[in-house]
Amino acid sequence: MELHGTGFILRGWLDGDEESLQKHANNPNVATYLLDRFPYPYTYNDADKWVTYMQHQKIQTNFAIAIDGQVCGGIAVDLMIDSNSKAGEIGYWLGEPYWGRGIITEAVKLLTDYAFKNLDVIRVQAGVFGQNTASMRVLEKAGYVKEGIMRNAIIKNGEVMDKHVYAILKP
Question: Which numeric CATH code is attached to 2-169?
Answer without folding.
Answer: 3.40.630.30
